Amino acid sequence: xxxxxxxxxxxxARSRAxxxxxxxxxxxxxxxxxxxxYTGCNIENAAFSPSVCAERVAVFKAxxxxxxxxxxxxxxxxxxxxxxxxxxxxxxxxxxVLAEFCKKDFxxxxxxxxxxxxxxxxxxxxxxxxxxxxxxxxxKTE
Length: 142
What we know:
The chain is of the alpha+beta class.
C-alpha cells in the first residue's frame, strides 16, 4: 500500500468521528507488517477524559487483534464538516502510545487536503520514553 492510499483511508476514517464538543474530527489509518490496515477516528465524551483519539483507536484495535508490528500511520484532521486546511499531527499522548510499539524511525504521514508530510516518530517525539527506557540500563554510569 502506498502512502497516498493510506492517507485516503485516514481521510475516510475521519468521516466517522464523533466530535460534538471540540468540533475537530480526526481519522487515522495504521499499516501493519502483515499488510492489514486498522483505521480509527476520534470519539469524544461529555466528561472529556474518556475521549480517545483516532490514532489510539487504530493502535488499540490492532493490538487487541494480535498485531504489534506497525509500518506507518496516516493521520488526517480538522474542523468538522470542512476539508483539512493543513496537516494535523498526533497529540502527545498518541505519540507516547506509538513509542510503546514503534521504533524512532516509524513513519507518520500527516495528511493535508491534497498532499501529506512524512515525519518520523523521533521528529515528533524527541527524547521520547519507550520500553527500552524501562529496562533500567539507561542512565547508569560505570
